[in-house]
Design a protein that fits this description.
- The complex is a heterodimer of chains A (253) and B (173).
- With 253 residues, chain A is an alpha/beta fold.
- Chain A has eight helices and nine strands.
- Chain A is globular.
- The mean pLDDT of chain A is 83.
- By secondary structure, chain B is mainly α.
- Chain B has helices at 11-39, 51-75, 79-93, 100-104, 109-115, 122-134, 141-165, 169-172.
- In chain B, helix 1 runs antiparallel to helix 2 (51-75).
- The N and C termini of chain B lie close together (11 Å).
- Classes of the chains: A alpha/beta (253), B mainly alpha (173).
- The A-B interface holds A 19-20, 22, 27-30, 32, 81, 84-88, 90, 100, 102, 104-105, 108-109, 126 and B 1-9, 75-79, 82, 167, 170-172.
């Protein structure tokens, strides 16, 4: 294994993510202030807390291709957000070294009022690329998406499929150091899917470190070589992809 | 747009987007001022370029207010409509659609005395440091002092809040 001084990597130690669950009352400044001033009006003023991740200790280094498996609500997306730095751990630590490209939602950061070309630039900037790098990729993306002249039209004129193609084209064109993929990437029309998968595989090859949350065993086998199984916010199992997938499949049977 | 829960970017990125957009709005509105300068020529002096640092101060203050309210309103959702009401009210309390000077110079000393109450409104000071040079009126030091003081205090408060709650914002969304 590479040492701790590796340039790209993520390490978490006993990292916890606790969400406060606010209701209409605790969301309200008025109610909160009145509650303090008025004393015992709202006696049950404590905000319930959900422990989305509990004492997660993980180390990722350059070259890792890690799949995340687990049931809905097990904490996969939360873990990806922890690894990207969006959620700072409420307890414990998380250290992230390297440029993170989080792909949780294909369309995030796209502006319907500006053209496809401009969206390519903007989306790329959000993924940590520079303007120049994106300008060099525009032709490649244009060819992949097969959108042709549509690229100079505003995004709002696109169909859903065209939007996905554009977003996928941009996402798969980048050079990330740390690539964090959430499921839902596979939701593309069939004819397009094969080429998208090739591009996705290329992207993964280029990236320094991959963490990929998915329910699709096929997809995981194609992109990852090790896996982490999350259960109720805890790391349930960790190791080579086949072992973890077998255990996970066994638990569901 | 949910960018905060999708991108590990510093909160200040969203601030820059907001402030830059508002600055562009201001520049568009400034066209009206330039046209008016041609229609009703004013006696402008070089010292009236102090409108530029005044505008910089205005932007700096807009920045801390946006950061502070941005953080607090994610936690307390009713603060957004409260803010809107307060701003609406402040607009009428601030001499924008009414003339402050005419009240100050009123022959009735009671009115002139009460007009000074308008200076309790912090927004007035921001308006005055920027509007006076644009209209060719002399600057007055006290407006600048108030604005500078508010800038320092506001930023100190904002940095304190950010230090404590910056990491919580993505949890609150």
């Amino acid at each position: 294994m590479t040492s701790d001084t590796a340039r790209v990597g993520i390490s978490t130690e006993n990292a916890c993510v606790d969400f406060p669950i606010f209701d209409a009352k605790s969301r309200s400044l008025k109610k909160t202030v009145l509650g303090v001033v008025g004393g015992n009006i709202a006696s049950e003023s404590r905000v319930p807390i959900i422990e989305a991740l509990k004492e997660v200790t993980l180390t990722f280094t350059e070259g890792d291709r890690v799949g995340l498996v687990g049931h809905n609500g097990a904490g996969k997306s939360t873990l990806l957000r922890l690894l990207s730095g969006i959620y700072e751990p409420t307890r414990g630590t998380a250290e992230i070294r390297g440029r993170v490209a989080p792909v949780f939602d294909l369309g995030v950061g796209m502006d319907p009022e500006i053209s496809g070309y401009e969206n390519i630039l903007i989306r790329g900037l959000f993924l940590g690329m520079t303007r120049r790098q994106m300008q060099a990729r525009v032709d490649d993306i244009a060819e992949f998406t097969e959108l042709g002249d549509f690229l100079s039209l505003p995004l709002r004129t696109y169909s859903t499929g065209m939007r996905i193609r554009l977003a996928l084209g941009v996402v798969t064109s980048i050079d990330p150091e740390i690539l964090l993929l959430d499921e839902g990437i596979g939701a593309v029309d069939a004819a397009f899917l094969e080429r998208a998968r090739d591009r996705l595989a290329d992207l993964v090859k280029r990236s320094g470190l991959l963490v990929f949350a998915s329910h699709s065993e096929d997809f995981l086998r194609q992109l990852c070589d090790s896996a982490i199984w999350l259960e109720h916010g805890c790391v349930h199992a960790q190791g080579p992809l086949d072992d973890v997938l077998r255990q996970y499949a066994g638990s569901r049977a | 747009m949910g960018l905060i829960t999708h991108l590990p970017a510093p909160l200040s990125v969203h601030l820059y987007r907001l402030v830059w957009r508002q600055v562009l709005f201001f520049l568009h509105n400034l066209v009206v001022y330039v046209i008016m300068l041609f229609v009703f020529p004013q006696h402008l002096h070089w010292s009236d370029l102090s409108a530029i640092p005044a505008f910089v101060l205005l932007v700096l203050n807009g920045a801390w207010v946006a950061l502070l309210l941005g953080v607090v309103t994610t936690r307390f959702r009713d603060l957004t409509p409260i803010t809107q009401s307060v701003v609406q009210l402040a607009f009428f309390l601030t001499p924008i659609v009414w003339m402050y000077e005419t009240l100050l110079d009123s022959p009735n000393p009671a009115v002139a005395e009460r007009a000074r109450l308008a200076e309790l409104n912090p927004f007035l000071h921001y308006i005055e440091i920027l509007r006076r040079p644009m209209l060719g009126q002399p600057q007055e030091l006290r407006f600048w002092v108030v604005v500078l003081l508010l800038t320092v205090v506001g930023w100190a408060l904002t940095l304190f809040v950010l230090r404590r709650y910056r990491a919580r914002v993505s949890y609150w969304l």
